[in-house]
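## Example pair
The file below holds two records. Each record gives the amino-acid sequence first, followed by its structure token line.
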Amino acid sequence: MYGMLLESVQHFIQLEYGEETWLAILESVGYRNTVFRTHHIYPDELIMKLADAAVTLVANGSTRQDFLRFFGRCFVRYFSHYGYEKFIKVCGRYFCDFLTGIDNIHLQMRYMYPKMVSPSMYISHEDADGVLLHYRTTRNGFCPYLIGQLHQIANDFYGIPLTVEELPNTPFSQEESYQFCFRLNFDNRDYMAGRAACNGSLELGRINISNRGSVKTIASEKALSSLSSSILMQLFPFTLVFRPNLEIISAGRQLKNMFPGDMLIGQPLPDVARIRRPKLLFTWDNLYSLQKVLCEMEILPASQIERKNTRHLAPERADAVAHRGAKEESRRLLLQGQLRYLSDWDAMIFLCNPLINNLEDMDGMGLTINDLSLHGHGRDMVMAGWQHNSRLEDLYERAEERSQQLQQTYELQDEWKKRGDKLLYSMIPQSVADSLRSGTDPVNTCQGTRILCAFESITVLFVELANIDEITATSPMEAVSCMNSVFSCFDNIIDQHSVYKVETVGKVYMVVGGAPETNETHVRDVALVALSFRDEIEKIVNSSEMSVHIRIGFHTGSAVAGVVGRKMPRYCFFGDTINTAARMQTTSLPGKIHISHNSFCRLQKLDGFVCELRGTVLVKGKGEMNTHWLLRYELPSIEEPK
């Protein structure tokens, strides 16, 4: 389908449900930040996916069918942006006129949308209360979309209420198409009255002609003599006339030139042509019902028609036909026009002209300009199309190029936004960052209290590069390289555990467990991180010439956290727990993990952690404290059943 249909959906979802809802729908169907282009082709199932996504995200109780009907109404409301509402207004005085000419509208639109795969519709019954509309399409599931369009057109352009009832489907032989029949109920009395008056005028004219020269003749109407069939065939050089048994009895002058020797006369119409639009079976009843519909037929190449009769020809003649057929196989004549039943002849006449878009089409059909009738528009369309084609193609290509550039800009913008988000989330927790992005004041970003977020229990770890000052004194670049290697190693480790990296200040690295996302395993998580830090540094020292030592310490307790400052805001922790954890690190020893008594008591409730009493340590600002060393973690053994 063309992008214009999707543009209409986008416009009215944004208008009625908001920009955020539309962006969420696009992301749900995998078209995030997509700019739909009017003349670009999109998959048919995309509109179904949009309807399903709208059901979930709008969540107003509407079903997929409801949203498809809404999309259909949106399209009718939207195409006025392109001036198409003027086209609809001149399609007929009555709604029934519009329904009769829907196929004609689609055929005229093919010049602007050459890749359009339009459905086929025709009316099989008319009465004062409505019509029976037959709908054939290659797409399944679009009936609600069509119904929405019909409702909106009936209301906006004809001011009448409309109800639609789907009738049981009738068999259709073409498996690639779907057929539906609808009963459209609306006030159709004015149309029926106008048709009855027209039929009465025609009958009166017939009476006047048959009685010319008598007193019943109306002076203002002059009877004309009958028109011979030969003149009619010259006026319409591509005409076909056939009987109810579909046998061709006459053909236009140009068709006789293209198919010499009266090749068409006496042939069954299905052997000579196939109906391209509307897609119907080749039966007399079907063709009789199409007298108000613009039809398209494809005349088969002369060689293909001859080939069906080669069994009656001499072998040399049959070979010549086959050889010529290989050259003419691509030459297929497309005719467009109207079917009319002539009761005097008891035959159907197809008044038509070739369907030609450009000079290439004409050459492919084996026609010249002089073959086209002067009263038709074929000559003008071919020449005008040839003159304006290059300009239109240039404008189209420029528009497509601008659309592609806009699409690429949106994709680039989305990529940079992802990079910015990744950088931001590495500095501030995602929940806090999203709150800040929405305009919330930094001090109001946390839960718990209005100013700061209180955590009843977290575990805070500090790790320090003990001898980095010595390295800096001798080689500052080596010190920077060393810190980068160590801290990058630490970053990889914490990604494997449920902990949060708060910051690095100089040679100190700070980690918190249990915040900003609270959990009950924060002591275990931080203890495992500390052991991993120590073990990985030992591996680095043993496998390289880098000589670095670390001191680790952690403590468990309560704290508060929040974003402070307006420039370069940081998510910071405050409280005695942070001070105590820092003292555990500063009073630790290189290669050791120093833990407070609170952390030790919690680890004792867990299996596998091996600790050792360090004893009483004088801690600045705290006095004497009983502390412990964390030695290792041993997987609990599983006792085998006796």
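Second record, same layout:
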Amino acid sequence: LPELRDGVVEMQLSEETPDELELDDVHSVPVYIAVVDLASNEEFLELVKSSLLAALEAMGPLARFGLITVSHKIGLYDVQGKVPVVRHISLNVAAGGEALVPLEDAMPLSVLLAPVAEFKENISAVLESLYPVSPVDNNGLAVGGGSNGNAGVDEPARALGAALKVIVQYGAGEGDEGTAFLNARLMCFLSGPPNCGFGRLDLSTAAGTKGSGVPGARQDKHSSTPQTLTPRSSMQQEEVVFHADLARQQVPITADDELRSADPHLLQPSSDAYRFLAQQALAVGFCVDLYIVSSAFVDLPTLQLLSLESGGDVFLYTDTEESTMPQDVYRCLSRPQAIAASLRIRTSLEFTAARAYGHFFPDPQMEGLHHILSCDQFASFAYDFEFKGRQSFSTDSECPPTIQVAFQYSKLIAVPAEGADKAGDQDETPATQRLVRRLRIFTMRTVVARSVRQVYESCRAEVVLSMLVHKIIRAIMEEGVEEGRLLLQDWLVILTANYNEQYRLLQAGNVSASKIDTSFSACDQLQPLPRLVFSLLRSDLLRLPREGASLDRRTHLHYLMSRLEPRFIQCLAYPELSSYTDAETLAFPRHSLSRAALITSGSPLFLLDTFSTLVVYLQPTAVDVPFPPAQTSLLRQRMKELKNDRPITPRIHFVRGGLDNVDVFDDNLIEEQDVNGGTGGGLVGFLDRIAAEVRVYLQ
């Protein structure tokens, strides 16, 4: 059978024609609903407008788009008439966040979701009408414990949880008639944490311990209280419910005091409210994407549940000036998506997949089966294998260990308009689409290593790092950051000890006098690991708040590293530094992250890739080198390749030593920095401590 052979086999299981899909039904076409936070400021909304205009360009011609705004009330936008209309529905926050008028009664879902191809100009005009609300618009609603962590400070109401609760009900329909969406995304644009109603995050007591690590840190200007602005369009506004009673006593959802006191740096959520909302969204067929712009603490460990539990994406930006949100939105929506997918792995009898890692959901009935609502080519999943009992691999080459992965998914495929294949019609807009169901089977037979040394010499450092990251993240979730750091360092100690024993580098019976090889000089494949572990210990994933770590940043790293493929995880953990003789000539493809590398290389130009940023650095002595490099240069072409091969859009910096602020470059030269934020000798001192611990371990 083809599926039993090595390699990849793909087959089509079924196909639904345009007639069967009922394309007039909003549940059968791609749907995008933007949920925009108006409790923000003008800079934030300008960024959101640019992002949504980019989103319109990425959406297919059959897509439907809906715009909903959120503050202390919900705004529903009808763009399908001659004059766009917004209808505001107040939220009864004191009664659990229910809308005082059902959204379907205020505006049918089919009216909210406008065909993009037909109403793109109206949608663009409506986006220009968005303006922030101010605290005086709260209708007496008391808010507190918000983005600056100061209870009692007046700020606009941001009832996100209550709004999402009724929006999901809106999408589900009424009674048993509700139909799940085939491919729908809720894109939530936030400038701060929810501060009232269902899902309120009370940060007044947690901001000092969970935020930037600096209690009372001031807010960035881009997340400050907005000024009252006037609408900039003549769009008709209809207030469906006036003067809602929102000032009654609220029941905030706060942190679990016992959990926080035990370890305030866990990546645990402070509430299950957003897990509940994500599960409800998942049942309707919504993926929830989060786009958050805030330099202050927003409790991302809690908010990210909206995306983690529904199959969406999380994007975190610290300010509007350097945000790449428009590019990220465009990329996210323009990439091909596999929807309603399932993944299953099978093995031969000797071993089994004991643990699974990634953004998917286990099937409640079938063991080893996981479900994925939506994913693209950058999604990555990992498995941890174990032997079954005491049985080991057979040395019989006729029966090698075998792994088989089955990935079943659906995909919407555009169908060109009739006659579009004729000459000159290549650019004809697709008139319809069809839904295909496919099954991809990958079968791999592996070679059994004859010795531990052969295992070492066949490993890939980035894959080892990826599995380490998954395990460490799970340890952090269950036991705290300190335990995660200890486990990672102990792993390196044990690996180093075993390596020295396997390669017979120790003096027999005299370990204390032996020189411990901590650089794995006899095994090229293991040599990157000490640097990767050192860098990971210094990353925000494992640093403590007293070392300047941000819990939101750590959570976002957790999110990224738990879904990225190994090469990107390695880039996040240990950025890549390359040097250029000039903009057209690569000098050396990879340097260590140290100032010594800059001095000894003799090169004037360096390119630093941290995954989220690309930094071009010019040495202070290189006064005759054209800078920034020309767009057509080899260096710029390399930057373009790196930028296009990313699930997110990296920020780009050009800095000149001696003239510009070079912190964005210097901060990544970590090998002279200590893992504990002090002066412990950097990487060299770290490896000396590992060698000392190896001696203790072996004695």
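Notes on the second record: Residues 481-502 form the longest helix (22 residues). The two ends are 54 Å apart (CA to CA).
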